[in-house]
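*Target chain*
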Amino acid sequence: MGFSLRSGLFIATLPALLVIIFAVVKKKLHIQYSIVWLLWGLLSLLMAIFPESFYKLSHFLGIQLPVNTVFLIMTALLYALTFYVYIMISKHNEEIIRLTYEIAVLKKELDELKRKQ
C-alpha cells in the first residue's frame, strides 16, 4: 500500500471517528449502535498505520487479498449489528403488546368508574 493511499485513509478516517465520538458524547447516537462504526474506523486506522498486519492476517486465514479480509471482518460486524437490532425490535414489540394490554385494562377500569359515578 503506497504512502499516499495510507495517508489519505488516515486523513479520511480520523474526522469520521471524531464525528462518531462527538455524536455519542452529545447523546445523538447510542453507544451500542456506534460500536460497528467505531470498529470500522479503528480497523481503517490500523490498516493505514500497519498495512503489513492485514497481509499477515490474510495469509493466516488463507485469504488471497487483504481487502477481502477487511470485507470479511466488516460483514461479520454488520451481521452482528443486524442481529442486535432484530433482538431490540423483538423486545420493543413485546413491550408494545404489554403496554397496549395495560392501557386496555386501565381504560376498562376508568369506564367502570365513570359508570359508577
The chain has one domain: 3-86.
